[in-house]
Design brief:
Chain A is of the alpha+beta class. Chain A is 38% helix and 21% strand. The longest helix of chain A has 20 residues. The first copy, chain A, is elongated and about 95 Å long.
Chain lengths: 419, 419
Amino acid sequence: MKPLSGFRDLLPGDYARRRYLTEGWRDVARRYGFVEFDGPTLESLELYQKKNSGGEILTQLYQFTDRGDRTVALRPEMTPTLARIVAAHDREFSKPLRWFNVGSCFRYERQQRGRLREFLQLNCDLLGERSVTADAEVIALLIDLLRHFGFGPNDVTIRLSDRLAWHDFLEQFGIKKENTADFLNVVDKMEREPQEKTEEKISLLQHSGLTVDKLRDFMASPRIPVLEPLLEELEARGLRDFIKPDLSIVRGLAYYTGVVFEAFALKGNLRAVAGGGRYDRLIHDLSNGAVTLPAVGFGMGDAVMLEFLKEVPRATDREASFHQATAACQVYLVIADEAQRAHAIRLAQQLRDAGVRVAFSLAPERVGKQFSAAENVGATFAVMIGAEWPQLKVKRLSSREEVSIPVESLSTWLSSEIS
Amino acid sequence: MKPLSGFRDLLPGDYARRRYLTEGWRDVARRYGFVEFDGPTLESLELYQKKNSGGEILTQLYQFTDRGDRTVALRPEMTPTLARIVAAHDREFSKPLRWFNVGSCFRYERQQRGRLREFLQLNCDLLGERSVTADAEVIALLIDLLRHFGFGPNDVTIRLSDRLAWHDFLEQFGIKKENTADFLNVVDKMEREPQEKTEEKISLLQHSGLTVDKLRDFMASPRIPVLEPLLEELEARGLRDFIKPDLSIVRGLAYYTGVVFEAFALKGNLRAVAGGGRYDRLIHDLSNGAVTLPAVGFGMGDAVMLEFLKEVPRATDREASFHQATAACQVYLVIADEAQRAHAIRLAQQLRDAGVRVAFSLAPERVGKQFSAAENVGATFAVMIGAEWPQLKVKRLSSREEVSIPVESLSTWLSSEIS
């Protein structure tokens, strides 16, 4: 009776929480002129095996052979699909593109708390624009997504780095381009590993004179010159408070080519709630050189955000008032006299036509039980239909206030009461 | 660069059409007090192999063995997942449940026009109520879903049948319970096959004295007594115009036990746009008898509905006005003087904070090109920021009307203009 390990059943209460999140995502993304697209849940395996799109993810793919002998995979992330679609339709759109998607992704991860095998992800990508303003625009969107839910600079910080700074550093020690990904993997993990382990890993890479101390010195440098123009842009937008330059952020994905960043939770369970960066070569590589389109974007998962919303009081309060305002049922019709059932059903139909959310008992039931049902479904009003029809009693369930209203006035009365 | 055969890339225009559909679904379902839930895209294969949930679908499953040696399948329909979840959480909810879901389903179907291998489906189910009013409530919801999009009784009809009528008929000819599914499959296909084929299929089943003529006579019977109470309920709701009793509707799925119905398009490409019925034993069977919950529900797919919307002028018009009212971008900032860019960016930030959908050119660009970009993204207004800052020129792009406004009044002015 249980879902597969790592998969979720979302009961209506859970779903309402997730919808609060996803509709907030959509609302803010649209303010930035972003438009939504979607792609298949299943893709050809090849899409993920191509140069640059891979990394650790390849070992976590849900891959199989379909009934038509194609090797396919459930998408582990959205960016390769986006790149494929944009490359195929390049000529149909003038640039830049501001595209977003909310969709399920799948990774066969080892099971541990909070690690899901199917999760929902928001992806926002700005394509066809190489300027630092594009980087700033995308990071501003990420920050506004967090502000929208009630998070401030004391709750979350954007750690900002740039792969270009790393490439310069690596060149200095003669580390070859093809070893960059391996090296950045060492950096990505060094915070969580003992120094000896890092030293051992570095010694396995070809280099001249690199030490862990030199690495730490570089990462501790107070200024990152390549990031200055971006920091100025974010300052101009009044968002500098949220930003923390931090070279230790390198991101796991192999395809990033410039700025990389992650939104990091400073409250509750410290962790990344979103991450992204610039990937100017992915579309070129996936299209075998047919289309070149610089791009910058990020992803934000639902599971971590839903946890984070519970950990910051202002975010929790904001969410609670949203749920209060969007109860499943606004009006419950209590049929106190079964002889009036036909009237009640017609009334339900009329109110629903007017956009009101209405429920009623589908079989004869004691009045007390009908009132319990009204409370169970979160109704704001119970409307009692009895022998005094067409006169109705309307009870506000939270305060127990009661008024008597003729049926022909109900719709108008409700529309002024339900804001 | 293409998606897998039978899968879709939804460009932003396509996505907007689908969102019009899915948000309409949600709006109407909520008016009936239905609440949304969700379940995993991937389930244990066993869930679909259990008694009663199968049929043709089992031959179309995307099934495979995962990295942990579990046999799993992409869900081909939502009902088994719903039944699993409801059975597992039976005690947490008072009945009846009014639950709906909008989710992707997957079937490896032979490729033909309009047949997709991944499609989105709305499922609405009312659980825990055996009365005919529950059937009426669900069918009324289905009809209102169609009315919402602009379809009337001349565009679509609900063909209504009942498996109980069929069971009585089959008993008469000594056809055994275990052969019911096979027999109904013959009925399901007989409209599309030559009579000889039907005769041949019937002769293979064990029966006493059944002929195709007797079968046709039964299906042509003007009254279906078992359906009368339901028809009266729908008449009382003012929805009788949409209904056509029709015994030839049996539905493919094996688990239906009572009323079955489908919404059938009378315009354009005649076909079913939704279908469902009562399934009082599925939850009992899936839970190995632990939970017994009568249920009635239906599914509606996105692909057929999106086609149907194009075929009925009133529906097409209604959709067009929706898209007009929800353009991706409301305000495009035209930066006529690069010296004012920082002002423009701060203004963008302020307007977005106020909920306005804003875009602007991320790199210096000729004014003419910026106006083209504004039209490309469907902006309602272009706001020109030039040397006369803080005075702005605001142009309504549809009519070319222009007004001059100081920046501090812009937000108020826009909020009265953008309804």
